[in-house]
From TrEMBL:
GO terms for biological process: proteolysis involved in protein catabolic process. Belongs to the peptidase M20A family. Residues 217-364 form the Peptidase M20 dimerisation domain. GO terms for molecular function: carboxypeptidase activity; metal ion binding. Residues 1-23 form the signal peptide. This is Peptidase M20. NCBIfam families: PRK09133.1. Keywords: Hydrolase, Metal-binding, Protease, Signal, Zinc. It comes from Acetobacter indonesiensis. Pfam families: M20_dimer, Peptidase_M20.
Length: 466
C-alpha cells in the first residue's frame, strides 16, 4: 500500500534549497543485475487477489533465488492462507540469544487492466530509463532489491550476529491476513524494517534529491456506518421528518467538528525538521505546532492545508451516502459511511463514542465496520535505527535531510506494533513526485534508483543485524 504512505510524504519543498550531491556510488554489478532481473520476473506473475492469483509463484521464485544464493532450503517456509501465501526466509545469526531482525515486504499487487495501460501491466518493460509494470514501485522492485542485497552480503562473507528473517506477506493490498499471521509468528523480533513505503523525493528540475523520509507511525483506518430510519410515506404528502434531511443535518455537524490535535515523538520531529525545510506560512506553522500543539493559529493553517491536515490528529470524513427507495416516496432509510484515520493512541471505539457524542441524536444509529486494521501506538524513536538510516542514506547522498514521519495508510507494520515490536518503514528508492503511479496506470520506477538502493541496504542491514 505504498501509495498511501508516499502521498503524505510529498510535502512541497522549495527548489531553492541546497540539493544533496551524490557520493561515489560503489557499483555492485551482480546485485544490481540480479535485482532488476528478479523484479521483472516477479512483475510478470499476476499476484492479484482472486481467481488465478499467482502470489504463490512469486514466493516460489523468491525461494529459488535465495536457495541458489546460499540459503538453506530448510530455512525457508511458504505457508498457504486462503487464495494466497506468506513466506519467511531465515539467515541464522551467530548469536542465538539475540532477537531477530525482520525485513518485511509484500508480494501481492493491486489489480491492473491491460486495456487501460499503454503497456501490458504484467509484461515488464525497460524503456527510457524506467522499469514499467504493476509492482515496479509497489513493491516488487523493493522486494528484489532486498533479496539481491542480502545475497550480495553473503557473497562478501558477511555473518550477522542477529538472525535476519526476510518476511513477505501475500495480501497486503486486500485482507492483510498474511501480515497478521507473520506478526503472530515473528512477534519475538527485535525490530522490523518494512521496505513498503516512505523513501525520498527527487527535485523535478534538477533531478537531485530534496529529502528522505522514514516512517515510525501509522494512523488507524476505520469506517463507521450512520443510519437514519423513518416510516416514509407518499411524496405528495411531505412531512416534517425526512430521513434525507435528517442525515444531512448530521453530516453537517460532523463536517464542522474538529478532533483535538495530537502530537507524538515521531510527528514532533517531522514538524520540526520538515517545517525548517518548508518556507512560508505553512513551514512556520509546522514549527509552531511542534512547540505547542494547542497553538490555534498554527492549527488553523495546518488544518487548511491538505498535505498537513492528516498529520495533526484524527480526521473523519463522509465518503458515501445511500438513501431512499423510490422517486415518488419519502425515504424510509438513509445510511452514510464515515471514514476515519485515527491518530496513534486512540481506539476505534473511543473515536466512535466521540462521533456519537458530536451527533448527539438518539435517532442515528452508529456502527463500527470491521476493516482488517488494528489501532497501534507509534514506534519509539530508536537511536540505533535512526542513526543507521542516516548513515545509509548519507553513504549515497551526503548531507541529505532525513526526516521521521507518520503516515495515514495501513501497512503490515501495524500487526507487529500490536505485538509491541518496534516497526519502521524505509524504502531507499528516491524518485520524482511526477513519477508516482503506484496503484494507478503505467506504474514505473527509474532504473537509476537501483545502484543507490543496493548501497543503502549494504550499509543498513549489517548495522541493524550486528
Amino acid at each position: 500500500m505504498r501509495n498511501v504512505l508516499i502521498a503524505l510524504a510529498l510535502l512541497p519543498v522549495s527548489a531553492a534549497l541546497p540539493l544533496a550531491a551524490h557520493a561515489e556510488i560503489v557499483q555492485h554489478s551482480q546485485a544490481e543485475t540480479q535485482a532488476l532481473d528478479l523484479a521483472k520476473k516477479a512483475i510478470s506473475l499476476r499476484s492479484v487477489a482472486g481467481p488465478s492469483n499467482k502470489t504463490k509463484d512469486v514466493a516460489q521464485l523468491f525461494k529459488e533465488t535465495l536457495v541458489d544464493g546460499g540459503f538453506s532450503e530448510k530455512d525457508i517456509t511458504i505457508t498457504p492462507l486462503d487464495d494466497t501465501v506468506y513466506m519467511t526466509a531465515t539467515w541464522p545469526g551467530t548469536d542465538t540469544a539475540l532477537k531477530p531482525l525482520v525485513i518485511l515486504g509484500h508480494m501481492d499487487v493491486v489489480e491492473a487492466k491491460p486495456s487501460d495501460w499503454t503497456r501490458d501491466p504484467f509484461t515488464p518493460v525497460v524503456e527510457n530509463g524506467y522499469l514499467f509494470g504493476r509492482g515496479a514501485t509497489d513493491m516488487k522492485l523493493d522486494d528484489a532489491l532486498i533479496i539481491a542485497s542480502v545475497l550480495e552480503l553473503k557473497r562478501q562473507g558477511y555473518k550477522p550476529r542477529r538472525s535476519i528473517i526476510l518476511a513477505f506477506s501475500g495480501d497486503e493490498e486486500t485482507a492483510m491476513k498474511t501480515g497478521e499471521a507473520l506478526a503472530e509468528k515473528l512477534q519475538n523480533a527485535e525490530l522490523v524494517l518494512n521496505v513498503d513505503g516512505t523513501g525520498g523525493v527527487l527535485n523535478e528540475e534538477s533531478n537531485k534529491p530534496d529529502y528522505f523520509m522514514w516512517g515510525g507511525a501509522e494512523k488507524t483506518y476505520a469506517d463507521y456506518t450512520l443510519t437514519v430510519t423513518n416510516p416514509g410515506g407518499h411524496s405528495s404528502e411531505p412531512r416534517p421528518e425526512n430521513a434525507i434531511y435528517h442525515m444531512a443535518s448530521v453530516l453537517i455537524k460532523l463536517k464542522n467538528y474538529h478532533f483535538k490535535p495530537d502530537l507524538n515523538d515521531i510527528t514532533r520531529a517531522y514538524f520540526q525538521q520538515a517545517g525548517a525545510l518548508k518556507k512560508g506560512t505553512v513551514g512556520q506553522a509546522m514549527q509552531s505546532f511542534a512547540k505547542n500543539p494547542a497553538d490555534q493559529a498554527a492549527i488553523k493553517v495546518l488544518s487548511a492545508n491538505y498535505t498537513t491536515v492528516g498529520l495533526i490528529g484524527t480526521t473523519c470524513v463522509a465518503t458515501m451516502i445511500n438513501g431512499g427507495h423510490a422517486l415518488n416516496a419519502l425515504p424510509q432509510k438513509v445510511s452514510a459511511n464515515i471514514n476515519c484515520r485515527i491518530f496513534p493512541g486512540h481506539s476505534k471505539e473511543e473515536i466512535g463514542a466521540e462521533l456519537q457524542h458530536v451527533i448527539a441524536d438518539p435517532g442515528v444509529k452508529l456502527e463500527i465496520q470491521e476493516a482488517g486494521s488494528v489501532a497501534t501506538p507509534a514506534s519509539p524513536m530508536r537511536k540505533d535505527f535512526s542513526e543507521a538510516v542516516v548513515k545509509a542514506i548519507h553513504s549515497v547522498y551526503p548531507n541529505l535531510p532525513v526526516i521521521p514521519a507518520m503516515f495515514a495508510g495501513a501497512t503490515d507494520n501495524m500487526w507487529f506494533r500490536a505485538h509491541n515490536v518496534p516497526s519502521y518503514t524505509g524504502s531507499p528508492i528516491i524518485m520524482k513526485t511526477s513519477d508516482l503511479f503506484m496503484h494507478g496506470l503505467n506504474e514505473r520506477t527509474p532504473l537509476s534508483a537501483i545502484a543507490p538502493s543496493i548501497n543503502y541496504f549494504l550499509s543498513l542491514i549489517p548495522d541493524l543485524s550486528h
